[in-house]
Amino acid sequence: MMDYGIAELAGSVDALWLIVSAALVFFMQAGFAMVESGFTRAKNAGNIVMKNTLDFVFATIVYVAIGYSLAYGTDIAGVIGSPTLFLSGFEGELVSVLFQLVFAGATATIVSGAMAERTKFTSYMVYAVVICAFVYPVVTHWVWSADGWLCQLGYIDFAGSTAVHMLGGISALVGAFFLGPRIGKYDKDGNARALPGHNLTLAALGVFILWFGWFGFNGGSTLAVSGFDGAATANSTAEVLLITCIAASAGALGAMITSIVRYKHPDVSYTLNGVLAGLVAICAGAAVVDYYGAIIIGLIAGIVVVVAADFVEKKLKIDDPVGAFAVHGAAGMVGTLLVAFFMNPDKAGAAGLLYGGGMDALTQLGIQAVGVVSIAAWSVVLMGATFWIIKHTIGLRVTPEEEIAGLDITEHGLINAYSGLMPDLHKVSLIDSTKAPMAMADETVGIPVMDYSEPVSGTLKKIVVVTRREKLGDLKAAMDSLGITGMTISYVEGYGAQKGQNSMYRGIEIDSTLLPKLKVEIVTSIPASQIVEAARKAIYTGAVGDGKIFVYDVENAIRVRTGETGASAVSSEAE
Length: 575
Description:
Layout: H1 6-38, H2 45-72, E1 75-76, E2 80-81, H3 94-114, H4 121-144, H5 149-153, H6 161-179, H7 200-217, H8 234-263, H9 268-282, H10 291-314, H11 324-342, H12 345-348, H13 358-391, H14 400-405, H15 407-412, E3 461-467, H16 472-481, E4 488-495, E5 504-505, E6 508-509, E7 514-524, H17 528-539, E8 548-553, H18 567-570
Antiparallel strand pairs: 1-2, 3-7, 3-8, 4-7, 5-6
Helix pairs in contact: 1-2, 1-3, 1-7, 2-3, 2-4, 3-4, 3-6, 4-13, 6-11, 6-13, 7-9, 8-9, 8-10, 9-10, 9-11, 10-11, 11-13, 16-17
């Protein structure tokens, strides 16, 4: 039996921690997919899932093929690693390769949300290859390779506020700029219109998954938990995770409070993005700031995410459906700069400006600013060139007809990503047209019934009630009191301007010409006046949007099972 020493055991523990952390960061791909699909429209949900899947597929292949060597290969002038193919020369670093690979996949995925709902699928795949094979690896060499020029300067970016998130966020902004806004996003005067995401609960699930994944993102960046030979201890790793959670929570509060001040209500989507902004901002300083610093950094990031998203959408007129730049670009930039203010000397070995660091802290602020500007410039130039070339060669954007129909159907042949939960747009025949039609079922089979058919009279009426969805219970109770036991209920969108009934999404009033409504259809021989009066009392609130009631003459009604016609066909079968 092999006799392992303490050093070997510690090395195994540290390797296991990195592997587990890599798995957590990988799971963030699911979080990104849920956030982005939830914040966009249902007709593009399948396309979003495909792009998030292929992001990591291409990241895996090209990062292993060449990206890792450019990031951590033999240094060339502090700028780039010497390239080799498929990890040649790195056979002893596979744990590190795995951990860095999932970071590359996360960087690529950030961009898809900003470019959602109008980007060609093939063009997006070209972008994913470029950023994972070259753009991202070069930046990580600058920041995390011991010989990288920013690392040599003393630049602090513990877990990638700029190396991962700002790079991805700025790439997202550049991509959205070259694409142009979604159809209908801005009116003829340039005012932004709200295009709400189709599922905020799905987006919230994605945020919680990302938060969970961040335990690997920041926690794994300690690179060790064994405490052997001066390495990071489990306690310091736990402290990094606590600081991460504090910043995320403060980010949510900062965004929520800002949305209340600006828009008079706590906006759900901004609060969710505030969590992510806090997580992004704390990446740079998670190992060098204390709890007080984490709270303030998170709060500032939460404020920044709302202000930045508003600025991009309303001032720059760049359509970023999920707020990718605000969350990753702006918050990553701010979090990196704030490190110079909040460094705790007991943790960082040097004091920040707010801890009496003086000129040394100012020098650190200058280094942080140089890193931010350099990485931002690299992102703009390289990704700008990439998107420009794609746009003028294979094309970056789908046609207007394809965009309006939705990328699920036009890019993937997928009628509906939620088949069974939402109406399909196609019809499926269950009858083989080559066979003879099925005969009607023997009416003697099943429950025996008597023929109650009666001559058709002109007494049947159809009453249609269109009203608020929340009034269904009151309306049902009113109809039950009249003996109406059969109603057809549909959830619809009401078309027609209804001033005074406002709803908001990300600080923009949602177009009031489309409002969620309930449509109830009743066919009965009971005098229509009774039903109308009871329905009106049930749904009346006195506010705009109470709805309308329509009354129609019905020529006839037939109960399919029994063949009953007229009033007996619409009466209760229990009668």
